[in-house]
Amino acid sequence: MTTADMTTEGIEAVFLTTHNWGRAAKFFQSLGYELEFSTDHDSGQLRNGDGPYVFIAEVPEDQEPQTRIVLKVADADAFRPGPDVEVVTPFEDTHYGTREMTVRDPDGRLWSLQAPAEK
């Protein structure tokens, strides 16, 4: 295992929730993002060049829209967070084919770490 296996590899994505998927998607398309795919449950993924993708999901009006930055991890099994990282949820399989971990920073913000699904 190398040190690279134990660290993040930069920003993978930005996850956003919104009250209006269509308006949010049009906003990002007006900024030069292209729609990569949309789902049948008011969500989708957009990308601008080779940078991180933006995934937007619609939530009910009683939920406040949120933003979460997702950091990339090459291998969930090899990843070892340092002693200053509070793990909120360990790596778990997602319904969209990745593995995700949630950590909390010293100021209380939640961060997602995303790795490829197990092979």
TrEMBL record:
InterPro entries for the chain: Glyas_Bleomycin-R_OHBP_Dase
Top-rank taxon, per record: Bacteria
The protein's name: Glyoxalase
Species of the source: Actinoallomurus iriomotensis
